[in-house]
Automatic annotation (TrEMBL):
GO terms for molecular function: ATP binding; ATP hydrolysis activity; transmembrane transporter activity. Residues 6-225 form the ABC transporter domain. Belongs to the ABC transporter superfamily. The lineage of its organism: Bacteria, Bacillati, Bacillota, Clostridia, Eubacteriales. PROSITE patterns: ABC_TRANSPORTER_1, ABC_TRANSPORTER_2. This is ABC transporter ATP-binding protein. InterPro entries: AAA+_ATPase, ABC_transporter-like_ATP-bd, ABC_transporter-like_CS, MacB-like_ATP-bd, P-loop_NTPase. Pfam families: ABC_tran. GO terms for cellular component: membrane protein complex.
């Protein structure tokens, strides 16, 4: 049986709107293997970000089950912090770097939170990531000295630092021009393949869809495979 890094099984999300119910996700299922890079597309308001939030243990689902690695998310949200810390890496629209930390310290902060490895192992891993992403010479720079593309590459390195099962990227190219945006997604793909991680990217940028393995489209709360 195939080992999946992420499974959404018959997941629905329903909001109560007065006397009415608003169904944002309607019985969707999605499975992503380690090393697989998936894109989610669809019109604004179709449920893409809601699905990503549920997959990232940020939002509860109304029905169905969410399995990350070998962990079934239950109703005890105290366990969700541990899941996010150890099993998920996030890349947001905005890099969300801490302005008073240099590049190296941005990654070291994740190391301290994760507690998965000893300090020396984390330092070696951090340097490896920075070298992969062309950032090793910028290790001592602060965010205000980095370009937009460089900041987003630091965010990629940070997402991989805790060696998660799943990488979740929410519009990672939204603030970048076409060339820089493509470079960033190429680097996400490279790290996903090299480190055998599952990745889901929500995007409106059709110019980068050739870089993913599978494209899903969400519309009216339903999901289907496009590629």
């Amino acid at each position: 049986m195939t080992k999946y890094a992420l499974q959404l099984n018959n997941v629905s999300k329903v909001y109560q709107d007065g006397e009415n119910e608003n169904t944002v996700l309607d019985n969707i299922s999605l499975k992503v293997k380690p090393g697989e890079f998936v894109a989610i597309v669809g019109p604004s308001g179709s449920g893409k970000s809601t699905m990503l939030s549920i997959a990232g243990a940020l939002l509860s689902n109304t029905k169905g089950e969410v399995i990350i690695g070998d962990t079934l998310l239950d109703n005890n949200k105290k366990n969700w912090n541990l899941v996010r810390r150890e099993k998920i890496g996030f890349i947001f629209q905005s890099h969300q770097l801490i302005p008073y930390l240099n590049v190296g310290d941005q990654l070291n902060l994740i190391a301290k939170i994760s507690k998965k490895k000893n300090k020396k192992e984390f330092e070696v891993y951090a340097d490896e990531l920075l070298e992969d992403l062309g950032l090793l010479d910028s290790k001592n720079k602060y965010p205000n000295k980095l370009s937009g593309g460089e900041k987003q590459r630091v965010a990629i390195a940070r997402a991989f630092m805790n060696q998660p099962d799943v990488i979740l990227a929410d519009e990672p190219t939204a603030s970048l021009d076409g060339a820089r945006g493509r470079q960033v997604v190429e680097m996400i793909r490279k790290e996903v393949k090299k480190r055998n991680k599952a990745a889901i990217m929500v995007t409106h940028d059709e110019r980068i869809l050739d870089l993913v393995d599978i494209i899903y489209r969400i519309e009216n709360g339903k999901i289907q495979v496009c590629k």
